[in-house]
Design a protein that fits this description.
With about 325 residues, the protein is an alpha/beta fold. The chain is built from twelve helices and twelve strands. Helix content is about 40%, strand content about 15%. About 35% of the residues are buried.
């Protein structure tokens, strides 16, 4: 089993975000299955490996580099093209392409479908993000009617809906890092999440959307956008409500009605099992076994499946049109 080197720009607060936490969770799970280390590449950090130091070793066949930071992936893939590289894909839509020599592990089926379309000759796997066992309904008294995190929230949510809701119920807006997120979710009756506008501005997709899943697991009723990876597990009318639905007045009506007769969300253990540690660890073991087999193969055999380049696609379209013309006019 090859070593795994998880490449991150850095791990301090400068890089703090959901993607970093998710990648560190995957790293910690991988450590249970094989040798794994964090490698930084934008800044040196005490006690951690640095990419330029590692690459001085010319024999790195026993290593798999795991790249994940979307805006840096194209540059890193080019820098590491002589080595074994895996892309751990969270968001989609960055616009780069990867050679078939780089397998792709996706955190959502939404992202898996994206890469299935745009990188059809790559090995592609699905490994959902982990929802820790600390996220569960503690059955405590809830003193927050509506909870929302300011980061990634739409202007509509923050400037229109929230001010109106404050006149009717107890609203709590989080605008800083939360140490005990499960505890906060267990204080709230309803959680609002509207990230479609944020990701549209970034030009990429919502990779997974941990917070709505974590909120649901803690018993919150969730009003959310259904963009990107959120569509993997959110099911409006069945386990959540669609936010920003037609009008502010309709959102208000549904939220206040739910508060009047509030009951906790109830995700079944069968539903949650897909995202719990045991299942993810088992899936990761299967994926790592296949990756090691693939990189053994890559040492001996070159890739030989024609890529779907723009030129090739244009030729194929012209051939199809020509074939239709021949059938229509020449009865061929």
């Amino acid at each position: 089993m090859r070593k795994l080197y998880f490449l991150l720009p850095g791990t301090d607060r400068k890089f703090a975000c959901g993607g970093l936490w998710a990648e560190l969770k995957t790293f910690n799970l991988a450590k249970q299955l094989c040798h794994a280390d964090i490698v930084t590449y934008r800044q040196r950090e005490e006690g951690k490996l640095f990419i330029d130091d590692l690459l001085q070793d010319k024999n790195l066949d026993d290593v798999i580099f795991v790249i994940s930071w979307g805006f840096d992936v194209a540059r890193l893939a080019a820098k590491l093209k002589q080595h074994n590289v895996v892309y751990h894909a969270h968001s989609a839509g960055y616009g780069f392409k990867l050679p078939a020599s780089v397998p792709i592990i996706t955190v959502s089926r939404n992202t898996m479908g994206y890469w299935g379309q745009y990188s059809p000759h790559s090995l592609i796997y699905y490994l959902p993000n982990q929802i820790g066992n600390e996220f569960q309904n503690s059955h405590l008294e809830r003193d927050i009617d509506v909870l929302v995190q300011a980061r990634k929230s739409s202007q509509y949510l923050m400037q229109e809906l929230i001010p109106s809701l404050r006149q009717k119920c107890q609203v709590f807006v989080v605008d800083s890092y939360v140490q005990d997120l499960p505890g906060l979710f267990n204080r709230a009756k309803i959680y609002l999440y509207d990230s479609a506008e944020y990701w549209a501005q970034q030009g990429v997709s919502e990779g997974f959307g941990l917070q709505p899943m974590e909120a649901l697991t803690c018993g919150c009723q969730v009003f959310s956008s259904i963009n990107g990876g959120l569509s993997d597990y959110l099911d409006p009318g069945f386990n959540c409500y669609k936010i920003a639905g037609y009008s502010k007045e309709y959102d208000m009506q549904r939220i206040l009605k739910l508060l009047t007769n509030w009951t906790p969300s109830r995700l079944t253990e069968n539903f949650l099992a897909e995202y719990r540690t045991e299942n993810i660890t088992k899936r990761l073991q299967v994926i790592l076994d296949e990756l090691n087999e693939f990189f053994d193969h890559k040492k001996i055999y070159p890739d030989n499946i024609n890529n779907l380049t723009k030129i090739r696609l244009t030729k194929m379209r012209l051939q199809t049109k020509l074939s239709k013309v021949k059938k229509k006019y020449f009865k061929i």
